[in-house]
Every structure is written in structure tokens, then in C-alpha cells.
Design brief:
The protein has about 200 residues and is an alpha+beta fold. It is about 25% helix and about 25% strand. The protein is built from 3 helices and 9 strands. The chain has helices spanning about 70-85, 125-135, 180-195; strands at about 20, 25-35, 40-45, 50-55, 95-100, 100-105, 110, 150-155, 160. Strands 1-2-3-4-6-5 form a 6-stranded antiparallel sheet. The termini are far apart.
């Protein structure tokens, strides 16, 4: 990518860090999955072989304006969803924050669901249960139209990743306004629409 196009990347001219420390564990960069306008995402490995994913929100300036606030806001929102969904089968475990713009979660061995892919008989009922569990915790996924966000685990089970645009009301914000309930229900219906589709 040319220097003139660096504004298209969340980290500008920089790449993901070669080494990170999170919650007392240290990991080395193994692979970059993607680096787009909003985030850079990569795979990291510890010395004992455990794998995690680091997603760093936008930090690069845009037309001379600092965009670090966008990265902090998106990372904080996504971390909130991972915390709220803790313990739900099909959601990778949240490891912790990396700085104020990065989130780290467990890596799920598998691959994105392909169009027309044959999966086990329990895959879609399990995915349905995962969506119901999210909705039960007050979260609408919103991004189910992207197949690459549905992971077919090596264990044959469904997993959801990338909660950047999920809709939910953070606990520390007080009681949600009435209009938010209407918005959340619309997004939940959208989740079911894309699930059926």
C-alpha cells in the first residue's frame, strides 16, 4: 500500500505489534487476519502455544484529525459485549484489553462459514441457541449478514466473532430510554432475518 493510502488503514503506516502483554501473559504475532479502516486484527501465540486474537481499533489520523477516540470507543463497546456474553457457548472468551484501543479474546480454531457449506445436524440449532442467548442478555448481534463472522469451529460448533457494531445498552449508563427498546427489538428481528436467510 502506498504512503498516500495509509489513511485507509486503522494503524496508518504501522503494523500490528510484534509482541503483546495481556493479563500477565505474553504473546508473539503469528499472522495478520485483516487491516482495514476501522481495525487491525491478528493472531498471537504464547510460549506454551496458546492462541489469542488481538483487534486494535483505529488510531491513525484522518485528514489531520485525531481518530484515536474512534478506536477507544469501538474497543470499549466490543469489550463490553464480550464481558456481557462471558460463559456463553459460541462466544470466544475475553482475555482483556491491550492499551485503550485493543481487545484480546481467545482464538477459535476453525473457518468462516461458506455459502452452501455442509455442516453437522446440530450446527444451526446451536447457532439459533447462541442468538437466543445473546438476545436474552440484551444484545443484538447486528452483523449476521456477514458469513465471515460465523465461524465453523474445528469441533463442528458455531462461534460468533466481531461484536464491533452489536447493539446493547451498557450497564453504567442507567436505565435505557424507551426508544432504545424499540431499536434493540428491530435489530434482534434483523438477526433472525439473516439467520433464516
Amino acid at each position: 500500500m502506498s504512503g498516500a493510502d495509509r489513511w485507509l488503514r486503522a494503524l496508518g503506516d504501522r503494523d500490528l505489534p510484534s509482541r503483546i502483554g495481556v493479563e500477565g501473559g505474553f504473546y508473539r504475532h503469528a499472522r495478520t487476519f485483516k487491516h482495514d479502516f476501522f481495525a487491525a486484527t491478528g493472531l498471537y501465540r504464547s510460549e506454551d502455544g496458546s492462541l489469542v486474537v488481538l483487534k486494535v481499533g483505529r488510531q491513525a489520523d484522518l485528514a489531520g484529525f485525531s481518530m484515536g477516540w474512534v478506536g477507544r470507543w469501538l474497543a470499549g463497546r466490543e469489550a463490553g459485549v464480550y464481558r456481557r456474553m462471558g460463559g456463553v457457548a459460541g462466544v470466544p472468551g475475553f482475555v482483556g484489553m491491550w492499551g485503550d484501543c485493543g481487545i484480546v479474546h481467545a482464538y477459535v480454531p476453525g473457518h468462516p462459514l461458506a455459502r452452501g457449506e455442509g455442516v453437522g445436524d446440530s450446527f444451526f440449532p446451536d447457532l439459533e441457541g447462541l442468538i437466543e442467548a445473546m438476545h436474552g442478555r440484551g444484545v443484538a448481534y447486528v452483523d449476521l449478514n456477514k458469513r465471515e463472522n460465523v465461524i465453523v469451529g474445528d469441533d463442528g460448533r458455531p462461534y460468533l466473532i466481531d461484536f464491533q457494531i452489536s447493539c446493547w445498552w451498557p450497564e453504567g449508563w442507567g436505565r435505557p430510554p424507551r426508544w432504545f427498546g424499540w431499536v434493540l427489538e428491530r435489530f434482534k428481528r434483523g438477526d433472525w432475518y439473516h439467520f433464516v436467510k
